[in-house]
Amino acid sequence: MYEINRCLHVACFIALLGSAALVQGDQSWPSFQGPRGSGATTERLPQELGEKNISWKRMLPGYGLSTPVVHSNKVFITCSSGPEQDRLRVLCIDGTKGQSLWERQFWATGRTMCHKKTSVAAPTPCTDGERIYALFSSNDLVCLDFEGNLIWLRGITADYPNVSNSLGMASSLVVTDGVVVAQVENDSESYAIGIDAETGKNIWKIEREKSANWTSPLVLSPGLVGLQSKSGIDAVDTADGHFLWKYDGGASTIPSSCRKGNVLFVPSKGLTALAYNLSSQKSPKQLWSSSRLSPGTPSPVVVSNTVFTISRGDVLTAGDIETGERRWQLRLKGPFSATPVVSEDTLLAVNETGLIQLVHFDDEQGELKDTFHLEDEVLASPAIAAGGVFLRSNSRLWKLVDAKQ
Amino acid sequence: MRQAVDKLIRNRNVRLVLFFWTISCCLVALGAAVSVAETLDANLKTLQSVGNEGKGNLSAAVAWQEVAGCESDSIPTILSAIDGASPLSANWIRTAVDAIAGRSKKIPLEDLEVFLLDVRHDPRARRLAWELIQERNPNRAEIIISSMLDDPGVELRYDAVDRLIQKASRAKEELAVNEILRKALDAARNVDQVKQITTALRKSGQVIDLQHHFGFLAGWYVAGPFDNTDGKGFATVYPPEQNVDLEALYAGKGMQVLWHEFLTADPYGMVDINKAIPGPGDGLKEVVAYAFTTFTMPVEREVEVRLGCKNAWKIWGNGSLLFERDEYHRGMRIDQYRIPFETREGRNTLLVKLCQDGQTKDWTKEWQFQLRLCDASGTPVLGSDRRPTPLHAEAEATHGESQTP
Questions:
Q1: Which run of H or E residues covers position A329?
Q2: pLDDT, tens digit, for every residue of A167-188?
Q3: Is residue B392 predicted with pLDDT exceeding 70?
Q4: Cβ-based contacts of B155 with chain A (< 8 Å)
Q5: pTM of the shown model
Q6: Which residues of B118-128 are buried (b: 16+ CB within 10 A; e: fewer)?
Q7: A82 neighbourhood in chain B, CB within 8 Å
Q8: Helical pair B138-145 and B154-170, crossing angle rounded to 10 deg
Q9: A173 domain residue, yes or no
Q10: SS3 A276
Q11: Phi, psi of B348 (to 5 degrees)
Q12: Strand A54-59 and strand A396-400: pairing?
């Protein structure tokens, strides 16, 4: 009898866990484009917006346009401060209450000059669930554990003195299979580097085209990253840095690619869909290319069977991922720098003035459902995890929640 | 009971035992303290020995844990380890202080003040000491900062100047305002602060010699154009790189080239090559120019060559290549590049190679640089043969007269 009861308890517990998993969405937003490299979330986005949706907000000690990274209910965010913006800061904030858990500061070892539209804290950090890896425009790269213990650090400009861009560097980090991938590409000394996540030492270093590039690497599958540049996309094995395949159709150097499954959506000739094969070194197959889906500064995002772009003219366009055909368009209020985030039926876009625009959509149309003004400049893309939208404006970090939940 | 204890103490043997026991305890305590100090010293040495490309990160992470675990009374000792440390090591050490201060209720404020006021310590470590005082005793920090106008620390001085600017804004009489602002200007090294102060002073008719304030080099000999078709001129060794002969005649790009004197009257020392070597329309394209100057130092010393430039460039100091960078038109600002240079007693030379590319957009017509000599705090280092800042008319008279088509 005791055994039966015990089995029942275990079964109930497993069932509860299972049901919890069904209702819970993403608990982590580990890098710039989220857990799947798509900009999409399985979380439910707020269905309306207002003061009541603000769970908390807090002042930030410096500037930045990096996306917050979320894991284990901890929010990690980078900033820079000081008269020369050479004080680099990594903050860990409690996701529930918004309280500071710890902060670590570093002095920039590389150049901090940036265009006024960007910041030394432009690249988004990333996490593998154990550590946080943070890169700055000065090419200082640091690794901390979740308690704030310093594990390693690098000064990439100290290592390679001409790695810098006078407009500022902005490529974000990814980590996969124990390798942190940094694209430090610029007009002068230009590299992509695979760094051992444990030790901070180079595993590989690839010379890249001498050309300014602000796009971010994208994890195509564990141990495989796509490096976007003016030339196109290079798929690189992170174990040793060798190239698996190449798409040489050219690509943007500002908005980055996103992916769904084994299809990559590249800002190239407008927008180009590439199907790649994980077990093959053959160049990916081009599915379609559409000039009508050309993104402006924000990167494309994809969910279900739809890919979304926001154009230079602030028009949100939904495209069919199978054919590239335009499904619908909706003019939003711009201008936009931040990449939007998207759930199954809702897209959240924030313009540079801090106006959040919530769009409900289906296959036929998109409709502006609600707006809310943060009254502060927003250039950073939001993160969505653990029941909240984490959004950084020029001076604050905000957590927005669905007030009905 | 008390009588029994007194009797025991009066016993000579017991007193001897007590004496040696006390001595032993003291020795153990001293030994422990020495051991702790030795351990801390060894750990700090480990942090001081990290190198480029991740060298020493693994052992540094272990040492960091130990240092970060120290009591707060160790903070001044830990900060002292930043003296002479490399920028990477300094970051390892300062984050350990962050960790200690972050969890400590009490920190040794008096010791930190002693550390702060000792200008032999690293300026950034002293700044950190001031910030720790500011967090716990803001009133005391304000009193201290107001006396740091001449501090070698960039940020300490910045805040001291800031307090004076605030004081000037509260003063009511113009004479008093100007007196305060003059004092602020003398101390100011930050470009934005200098601009803010000079704007206010000039409104009341004050004359300010900014070239002299910053130490910009105004007098140059210029030679060009040489060929830079397809950017190949950057790597091409033209005769001035082998020997600067101010009487020489060179075969340039489509013309014979002579050295000619160029004086800039620009308050921020801008050397505009488009004025020195005028071309059609927006100026010459795909060309190289050289600029040469000398200055006399009363003693040998290390200085910083600080350059602002948006063209590709190389600099030689006393005939040795100091640095080079092949980036075009990404941005420019004062002190964009900081290059260490060991000057010698007597005559020193500087040769700048300045490359213009073939881009034709509005923002690519500039072909110019601004260069000054200063110490690490930004205080100008002026040659003993420095000439008075040229007037506009005097400078314009030297423009582009020696071209030989």
A1: strand A326-331
A2: 999 999 999 999 999 999 999 9
A3: no
A4: 82-83
A5: 0.91
A6: eeebbbbbbbb
A7: 155
A8: 90
A9: yes
A10: coil
A11: -125, 155
A12: antiparallel
Percent of chain A that is helix, strand, coil (3-state, to 5): 10, 40, 50
For B93, name the nearest residue in chain A, comparing CA atoms only: A106
Instruction: Name the β-bridge partners of A357.
Output: A349, A371
The angle at the Cα of B262, spanning B258 to B267, to the nearest 5 degrees, equals 160
Across the interface, of B52, B53, B331, the residue whose CB is closest to A167 is B331
If one counts the domains in chain A, the total is 1
- Is residue A27 in some structural domain? no
Q: Residue A255 belongs to what domain range? A: 37-400
> Using CA atoms, how far apart are residues A52 and A293, in angstroms rounded to an integer?
35
Mind telling me how many Å the CA of A151 is from chain B's nearest CA?
5
Q: Could you tell me what percent of chain A has a pLDDT over 70?
A: 94
Q: In this predicted model, which residue has the larger pLDDT, B9 or B72?
A: B72
Write the CATH number for A207: 2.130.10.10
Is A22 part of any domain?
no
* B243-294 per-position pLDDT tens digit: 999 999 999 999 999 999 999 999 999 999 999 999 888 889 999 999 999 9
* Residue of A354, A269, A273 whose CA lies nearest to A306: A273
Give the confidence band of B35 by pLDDT, cuts at 50, 70, 90: confident
Name the DSSP class of A291.
Answer: G
Residue A270, CA distances (Å) to A225, A228, A336 in order? 22, 15, 17
DSSP letter (8 states) at residue A200: -
A128 inside domain: yes
Q: For the segment A234-275, what is each residue's pLDDT rounded down to a tens digit?
A: 999 999 999 999 999 999 999 999 999 999 999 999 999 999
What pLDDT is recorded for position A281?
81
| Complex confidence, ipTM | 0.92
